[in-house]
Write a sequence for this structure.
């Protein structure tokens, strides 16, 4: 039997050959890039890649090696594409993105819509971002807010997207896909939940507690201690508070913020019942124009992927190869396609950066239905 040293020497010789061949292959791919630039051809040719994968698998013997050689060539061709996108970028033929860069947002006389009623956390987020003199109105649902900007009755909408303890506001993710509206800003607001009821309500008189599902989730530890209370979801925490005022019923209470409790004349029965003491929610500012601030530093996109092994891995490699820092990934089921998912990715960068354009070009060719949700 050969010694380990001898076998390693043999591997070194083989690897030298692979390395030389890799460089030679990439050199040819540069030529392919030049050809494609000249002739306006797409970088990604899935048919050619599938033929190649089948051909190389044919040439090796065991199932293990068939799988291995496919993986190796998937990687090689993915590298080849990235080199080609880079050449396209250097030649300035990446194409223009349909977003217009602005020095600042047009906030003059802007009308802003938020979901809920007076006292909603969405309203507090709006006041934080736009200032207290902002012209505004409120609507019953997130969908109504999206429609208001799409049809132009409002210029901006403020929507919650994610909570530090309860996670994503999934409905808002889905609406971002459905509507031609784009994120232009974000703001983070600390959220403190109170348990509030009309005068005379006590912890022992309560049978039902009302709030937005996020409000119920963010106070689940406290609510679990009162397991007999029925938890009822309503569209907004401030709507729950308003309902308490309207019903005047001591068998029910609302999870809402202090301002809403005050506004609707409720007593606070328990303060700061949120599970996490630093509970906070990130809100996005959405508009109907494809614009971004020139100093924007975060990009949100979403895409579907072919239902094949390795496809997410290959798509995410565009971030790695362009040195882009991915800060978040979420997935949501694709409507009408059971067990298929749409991915939402946030990463650092500006749409004017070459690295960003390069990554988006690659993602656009290789993913299904890529949508840029905004740069802010
Ligand atoms: C090199 C090409 O570009 C891409 C990369 C391929 C490869 O590395 O073999 C194959 C198909 C294309 O997706 C080509 O079109 O031939």
């Amino acid at each position: 039997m050969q010694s380990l040293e001898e076998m390693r020497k043999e591997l070194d010789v083989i690897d030298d050959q692979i390395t030389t061949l890799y460089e030679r292959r990439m050199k040819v791919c540069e030529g392919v890039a030049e050809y494609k630039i000249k002739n306006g051809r797409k970088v990604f040719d899935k048919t050619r890649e599938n033929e190649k994968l089948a051909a190389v698998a044919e040439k090796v013997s065991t199932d293990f090696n068939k799988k291995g050689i496919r993986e190796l060539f998937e990687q090689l061709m993915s590298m080849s594409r990235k080199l080609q996108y880079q050449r396209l970028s250097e030649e300035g033929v990446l194409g223009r993105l349909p977003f217009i860069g602005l020095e600042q947002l047009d906030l003059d006389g802007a009308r802003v819509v938020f979901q809920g009623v007076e006292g909603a956390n969405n309203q507090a987020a709006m006041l934080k971002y736009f200032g207290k003199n902002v012209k505004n109105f409120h609507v019953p649902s997130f969908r109504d807010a999206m429609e208001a900007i799409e049809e132009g009755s409002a210029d901006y909408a403020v929507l919650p997207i994610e909570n530090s303890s309860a996670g994503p506001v999934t409905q808002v993710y889905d609406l971002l896909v459905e509507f031609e509206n784009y994120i232009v800003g974000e703001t983070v607001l600390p959220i403190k939940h109170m348990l509030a009821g009309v005068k005379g309500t006590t912890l022992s008189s309560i049978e039902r507690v009302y709030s937005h599902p996020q409000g119920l989730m963010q106070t689940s530890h406290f609510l679990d201690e009162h397991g007999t209370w029925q938890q009822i979801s309503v569209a907004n925490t401030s709507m729950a508070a308003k309902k308490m005022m309207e019903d005047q019923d001591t068998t029910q209470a609302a999870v809402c913020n202090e301002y809403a409790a005050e506004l609707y004349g409720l007593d606070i029965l328990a303060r700061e019942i949120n599970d996490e003491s630093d509970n906070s929610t990130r809100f996005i500012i959405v508009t109907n124009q494809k614009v971004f601030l020139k100093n924007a530093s975060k990009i949100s996109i979403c895409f579907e992927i072919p239902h094949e092994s390795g496809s997410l891995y290959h798509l995410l490699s565009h971030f790695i190869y362009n040195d882009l820092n991915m800060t978040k990934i979420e997935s949501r089921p694709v409507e009408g396609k059971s067990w298929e998912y749409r991915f939402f990715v946030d990463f650092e960068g500006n749409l004017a950066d070459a690295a960003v354009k390069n990554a988006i070009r690659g993602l656009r060719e290789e993913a299904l239905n890529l949508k840029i949700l905004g740069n802010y």
About this structure: The longest strand covers residues 182-190. The mean pLDDT is 95. The CA atoms of residues 37 and 93 lie 7 Å apart. Residues 29, 32, 43-45, 48-49, 52, 77, 80-81 surround ISJ (CB under 6 Å).
